[in-house]
Amino acid sequence: MDYKKLDIFNPIIVVLLVILYLIFSLISYENHIRNLVGVSYNTITIIFLGLLFYIIGVSISRYFLKNKSLEINSDKLSFLFSRRNLVLLVCVGILLQIINLVYLGGIPLFSGYLKARAATRIWLLSYLVFLPSINLLIAKYHDRKYYVLFLIGLMLFVATGYRTTAMAIVISVLITLYYTRDIPWKYLILAIVAIFILLLVIGYVAVQSIEWQTWTLNPLELLFYRAGYTLQVLDNAVGLAGATHGQLLYNTLMGFFHSTDPRVIVGQTTLGYAHSTTSMIFGPAILDFGIYAMLIQMLIIGLIMGGIYYIQRSFSNIYTVLYAMLLAHVIIWIETGPTDLVVLLFFVISIIIILYTINRGGD
After folding, report:
1. How far is CA 58 from CA 66, 88, 254, in A?
2. Cβ(93)–Cβ(189) below 8 Å
3. CB of 230 within 8 A of CB of 280?
4. Does 78 have pLDDT greater than 70?
5. Could you give the CA distance from residue 248 to residue 157 in angstroms, rounded to a whole number?
6. In sequence order, which residues have a C-beta less than 8 Å from that of residue 156 and are 6 or more positions away?
7. What percent of the chain lies above the pLDDT cut of 70?
8. Is the pLDDT of residue 4 over 70?
9. How far apart are the C-alpha atoms of 305 and 10, rounded to whole Å?
10. In this structure, are residues 135 and 153 in contact, taking their beta carbons and an 8 Å threshold?
11. pTM (2 d.p.)
């Protein structure tokens, strides 16, 4: 079978990964890892309703774009993406992350105290510069030495102790390569296995380095536990729908101007004490505005992902990179939820660029 015909990075992969996440949670409940007990059927029903609205959003985009002729105004942006400019931007992103680590005075991956301070404005700017530029560089120019820059940047972001940024870099580059290179099946499998191992290692080292916590789980148990624990937080959020009255959205949007972590608000609301925690892709909207808001959120995400997917199927380079970055973040949102300003910025930037550069023709 030609796996390319399957297009494994279709937006519907998000649905399959949510189901896989639920299976991981079930494993943690069946084995009572750290006394996890499970969630209500109501919560599972709400999850599948959210997935249904996501699928509807993707389908609506497909319906409106399938028979449209798209015309690219590429001249407006192509001057930005010369080889020299992209290499310069990648190096600027790397340099900024080095400056951030020097400013912190250590490696946050090995210290919970440093990790709590690692997401500085320098870190945010570094990520905003490095992620799109490394993807564009690899998409446009077939030169193996650029993978060295990718690895250097990846290791620096791993050093911050944040799984989300490191995983977004790896997953987005894999998706970019999938659409711009003819990757043999065996290498694709190896890359996915490598991503899974990286997820295990970063997560395990990061939690073991938190000075005020003690963990006895092995890396695989920790993976299952995080899935089960996060689903239980969502279960609590369902019972507290609307409790935060928009605080999570406000603190996410204002994240560049103050240091309040929306996930601490999630923990405070669902657990009763200040603790940074996640509630899956569905939790923040439910806590802020209720079940209907979550369904609207999933519909909008489906519309955006479906739209960018069908646009990038016709064109390459920047549109493929935009899709790769957004899909990587939505995959990560399955656990973390949309509470990161940097991710929302990529969504806004992507929508602006697409509106600026694409004119839709008639049928």
Report:
1. 12, 36, 29
2. no
3. yes
4. no
5. 25
6. 94, 97, 98, 101
7. 87
8. no
9. 9
10. no
11. 0.91
Distance CA 319, CA 317 (A): 6
How many angstroms separate the CA atoms of 231 and 173, rounded? 28
10 Å Cβ neighbour count for 289?
19
Residue type, 290: G
Select from 299, 300, 305, 296 the least CA-distant residue to 329.
305
Residues in the chain, overall count:
363
| Alpha carbon 283 to chain centroid, angstroms | 15
For residue 197, which of 232, 235, 229, 158 has the smallest C-alpha distance? 158
Band of residue 238 on the pLDDT scale cut at 50, 70, 90: very high
Residue with tokens 């990790």: 115
Residue type, 335: E
- DSSP letter at 68 equals P
Q: Which residue has the tokens 């739209």?
A: 307
Q: Which residue has the tokens 């079978």?
A: 1
Number of H helices, E strands in the chain: 17, 2
Q: CA end-to-end span of the chain, whole Å?
A: 33
Residues 6 or more apart in contact with residue 54 via CB below 8 angstroms: 14, 15, 298, 299, 301, 302
| pLDDT tier for residue 82 given thresholds of 50, 70 and 90 | confident
CB neighbourhood size of 266 (10 A): 27
* Residue in the structure block whose two tokens are 């997917």: 309
Asked if 244 contacts 265 with a C-beta cutoff of 8 angstroms, the reply is yes
